[in-house]
Amino acid sequence: MNCLKLKIGIIGAGRIGRLHAENIATNIREVEVKSIADIYMNESLEKWAYSIGINHVYKDHRKIIEDREIDAVLICSPTDTHSKFIIEAAQAGKHIFCEKPIDFDVKRIEEALNAVEKAKVKLQIGFNRRFDHNFKRIKEHIENGKIGDVHILRITSRDPAPPPIEYVRVSGGIFLDMTIHDFDMARYLTGSEVVEVYAIGETLIDPSIKQYDDVDTAIVTLKFENGAIGTIDNSRKAVYGYDQRVEVFGSKGCLIVGNDKPSTVEIYSEDWVYSEKPKYFFLERYRESYIDEIRSFIDAILEDREPEVTGLDGLKPVLIGLAAKKSLETGMPVKVERV
Amino acid sequence: MNCLKLKIGIIGAGRIGRLHAENIATNIREVEVKSIADIYMNESLEKWAYSIGINHVYKDHRKIIEDREIDAVLICSPTDTHSKFIIEAAQAGKHIFCEKPIDFDVKRIEEALNAVEKAKVKLQIGFNRRFDHNFKRIKEHIENGKIGDVHILRITSRDPAPPPIEYVRVSGGIFLDMTIHDFDMARYLTGSEVVEVYAIGETLIDPSIKQYDDVDTAIVTLKFENGAIGTIDNSRKAVYGYDQRVEVFGSKGCLIVGNDKPSTVEIYSEDWVYSEKPKYFFLERYRESYIDEIRSFIDAILEDREPEVTGLDGLKPVLIGLAAKKSLETGMPVKVERV
Amino acid sequence: MNCLKLKIGIIGAGRIGRLHAENIATNIREVEVKSIADIYMNESLEKWAYSIGINHVYKDHRKIIEDREIDAVLICSPTDTHSKFIIEAAQAGKHIFCEKPIDFDVKRIEEALNAVEKAKVKLQIGFNRRFDHNFKRIKEHIENGKIGDVHILRITSRDPAPPPIEYVRVSGGIFLDMTIHDFDMARYLTGSEVVEVYAIGETLIDPSIKQYDDVDTAIVTLKFENGAIGTIDNSRKAVYGYDQRVEVFGSKGCLIVGNDKPSTVEIYSEDWVYSEKPKYFFLERYRESYIDEIRSFIDAILEDREPEVTGLDGLKPVLIGLAAKKSLETGMPVKVERV
Amino acid sequence: MNCLKLKIGIIGAGRIGRLHAENIATNIREVEVKSIADIYMNESLEKWAYSIGINHVYKDHRKIIEDREIDAVLICSPTDTHSKFIIEAAQAGKHIFCEKPIDFDVKRIEEALNAVEKAKVKLQIGFNRRFDHNFKRIKEHIENGKIGDVHILRITSRDPAPPPIEYVRVSGGIFLDMTIHDFDMARYLTGSEVVEVYAIGETLIDPSIKQYDDVDTAIVTLKFENGAIGTIDNSRKAVYGYDQRVEVFGSKGCLIVGNDKPSTVEIYSEDWVYSEKPKYFFLERYRESYIDEIRSFIDAILEDREPEVTGLDGLKPVLIGLAAKKSLETGMPVKVERV
């Protein structure tokens, strides 16, 4: 093949930025990560970048935006910079992959989406779970009519350990930080919009987060446009690991997807049968999905088609999350804002 | 053993009355079912009664109430007769096993419970699921501290097929007829009272039940006194059979209990791995529990201890069910009435 | 129903004789156990017999054989009396249910079968596992062609604890006492005869059984008439309980059946996921099958059809067991004797 | 890191050679594949080599052997060249990774091992399954005493489809081609040597392989030095995919490891519960293990320690396979030759 590789710049060299860089380096041959920028760029990050073949390393993300050779950018910087960087990248004619959430402010999200639309560039949002082998399979079965009409959606989504308290402070709260993935999954699987939510929550794990009006244990009830209903339960701390299960019940059957386990070994002993806990960490559980979402983004560019996770898919879960937040505050069900 | 058998009379010879009669005849040797009464008593019922050794058959339940030899009665007649019969039996000094629910009217329940208290007889309510081998095991593990403090309770409870529409009309609605078992399970497993509920529901299976302001698909969110939260999802029609699962998540782990299956056979074929559906029918799934609840009632009498399911245990789920009903009507969360 | 009940006498009031008596008393209404005989009959056994409604209790089994009212006998006495009692009962025109094995001596088995044939009475052998819900299901799937032609049969059959050493002494050895059930299962499931066996075994659990030339851990390889091959593995001591699994692999798929468990509860904890061990004891695991085999025997009499487990089905596994024994002794594969 | 990468040459660019090359390119940074040789080298292979960064491409493997810069070779050529290439590479002072089996001829294997010993280079044999996440875990549990002493080993190993008939012709037969992996697993898991085998087999899938005196369905019984016994069953065609299961039963418990599945999705329908078949293809199932075995080989070189799979580990399964072959021919158990 003689054609040139797609050239990509990454903005933000934190955990997720580095993950994408390494995934591309080892798994996606048609792409070259030309450059990476991080406001906290330092020697050790530089070394890491060079070691995986990224030859340009900046503090200033503008160096990437202004580079004519760059076809697309991955925005992996903190949430409060997302909408600004989307607008800049769109105006520079770059295709954009942006981590979730786009922003906590709906107006700023809309400005970013408008800029993208005007520039006619691709924008994909980083809801990686849509690319998980388990959830992808469920989605296919629903679309193939395996369970008829969807009646009830159940999502269990629990983290192995709560994030640092400093993170909680700026995370936007559990519904915009953690449940947002479940809201996306809810829309993705049912193929319908959430119209109303009711949220309850408690601080059962770490009382210190109460100061930020946040909770660590929550249940959110959902009403969908198509008549289906749903329930999500979240905890910031499942001692047995990362618990990610989904169940979709319909008129013709039920789809249930459990956790992946590190091995299938069972130990039959005098007292119990032991088997392994779910994979502990999200990077382990969703490893493949991070690769596949980037591959899908690249394909959307190369084939000039709509990305699998659009800007609207980025906006909607924020609206649901904001409604859930309001519901928790008021103790009342809250309608999700329309766009 | 030379001692006399405990003598029992059964009021109501419908499906559940006959089930108890047969269970006692074949499984509980220390008890004799002396008599059975049913307002619709007929020749075929009489024959059945004689065939299993019940020698006295009446239309009028008073014959049982007034029989000095009778130690205890099982009330298996329609719900609207329960409180009346409880009062009569209590006043006659009989111990009482009464099918759930006691009544839909809280005042009448309270009158019945007062009569029982005054007469100092035993009263056990027919929440048989507490005696199911799976749920009993979960309860033990919770009490032994296996999962620490309870944070989240999830109940899935789905029937294989909706009841006849005439039954729906008088059933008191899905929350008092079907979910009431789940409300009891919620109290039983958490060991805490439900203080507030929020219910949503839809008519996705059979629109004809709308005329009775009932739904066939529902989600109820629960807040418990001890801070735990819970969610119940119900459907009147799971095509794959009777779906009865519970999950209790706590600070130290999670308990999950699935359905019983008729066999453990798996078929590995060219396209799928096939295994059996859950047991289809509640009498099949809960067969043992019906025997065990009566055994427990008899033991409570013989050992002169409090029954495992008390009159208060009969009242509380009705209060939760009434709150859920009001929540569905008003679209608002509703506090459960205190007693 | 006005018709008279089938009248049965039981010879042998050991564990299995009492089990059948109680199963009939509580589960099989069309049968009356009129009498029971045991050479060691005593007061406590008599009391037990009366308590479940058996009104005639003897030391001498001839009292049952000579009783004109008796339609059928269950032979539950020690193995070395089986063939003699079969002959006596047959000559007296009684139908016969006989526990396995008929005998360890092929000639005596043949004499017994001849007597049965001459008397034209029914004879059913107590291979109860054929009536187990799991194995019955597998058999149906095989007959319905779900896995095509059978290629490989795998049986795992392990006891929770070795029998007392005095029992080992007279048991006929592991192949005639324990594996005999698996040989029957092999014939039942494949629908083909075993033509050659090769057996290896070791004394890994209790060296004291070596004095009786027996082993406690064994693997038997089978060649079937239809070309299929099979392997059985046995242990006298599985610390995790009674382990009874079967796998049948064929040209179109594979059937796998696992153990029954007391509950479906799983405990997710910080270190492992715990679930329950298989049912520990054969009476617990095969409870229903013991009832069903008697029911089937009764039906064979009432419907005048061939029993589901014939005399030949009783003879064949003994021939296989004797071949396995010889193989263990000689270290060579051994052909199974034809009849 | 400034240190030079380990330089490797690959001999044989067939499926497995290319697999290792790609695995190293994308996953093992401390290694550079400098060159690859294949007697059938062609333009398309060259292009592929360059695309993954292999800059030297030869027809003649001697070019690699004679290259002073090369630290180690991977021998991925046909089996009949293995021992010759091992000797050449050893004499040139290269460390060697060689695909299994080393040879079908014991004398030639011994010559190769002698050459390796004399040259004091590392030799690792490609029994990749030892590096499989499931089997590795079982091994750890055994070594940690989780099941006490090993009594019974059961291996099920079935391919999804038979190899081409031309391959069967030169494969050495099912025991040296397919079961050899199971023989290795048997030694690896029990930590004991196989001293005697008994093999039976049939041609149930494709009669045409009979011309090569081969079978497609087989059971092999094993006796181990430490008293344990084992059974392996093989089929060339499991319609449901690649079936790789192991069970190790011991004095304190039992370890069971099942197949990996593409997803955990279950579909509950009106007739069955459907779940996915095992992964279909060995490259898919054992993907990680191929990477890990090379990583282990590289580590053995860098840390100057004995490889995890030694030359003796390469020889022993061939001896067992030859004994199994002889057993099938003679119909008798055969002792495994000692070395």
Polypeptide structure, described:
4 copies of one chain form a homotetramer. Chain A has 339 residues and is α/β, with parallel strands linked by helices. The first copy, chain A, folds into 2 domains: 6-121, NAD(P)-binding Rossmann-like Domain (Rossmann fold); 130-285 and 316-335, Dihydrodipicolinate Reductase, domain 2. Chain A has helices at 15-27, 43-51, 62-65, 79-91, 106-119, 133-143, 165-170, 174-177, 179-190, 282-285, 287-302, 311-330, and strands at residues 6-11, 31-37, 56-58, 72-75, 95-98, 123-125, 150-158, 194-202, 217-224, 229-235, 243-250, 253-257, 266-268, 273-275, 334-335. In chain A, the strands form 3 sheets. Chain A has a 7-stranded mixed beta sheet. Chain A has a 6-stranded parallel beta sheet with strand order 3-2-1-4-5-6, with helices on both faces. In chain A, helix 1 links the parallel strand 1 (6-11) and strand 2 (31-37). In chain A, helix 4 (79-91) packs parallel to helix 5, helix 5 packs antiparallel against helix 12 (311-330) and helix 9 (179-190) crosses helix 12. The first copy, chain A, is globular, with a radius of gyration of 21 Å. The mean pLDDT of chain A is 95. Chain A binds chain B through residues 149, 151-152, 154, 156, 158, 198, 200-202, 204-205, 217-219, 221, 223, 227-231, 233, 235, 237-240, 243, 247, 249, 251-254, 331-333, and chain B through 149, 151-152, 154, 156, 158, 198, 200-202, 204-205, 217-219, 221, 223, 227-231, 233, 235, 237-240, 243, 247, 249, 251-254, 331-333. Strand 14 of chain A pairs antiparallel with strand 14 of chain C, so a sheet runs across the interface. Chains A, B, C, D: Belongs to the Gfo/Idh/MocA family. Chains A, B, C, D: This is Myo-inositol 2-dehydrogenase. Chains A, B, C, D: Keywords: Oxidoreductase. Chains A, B, C, D: InterPro entries: Gfo/Idh/MocA-like_OxRdtase_N, GFO_IDH_MocA-like_dom, Myo_inos_IolG, NAD(P)-bd_dom_sf. Chains A, B, C, D: It comes from Caldicoprobacter faecalis.
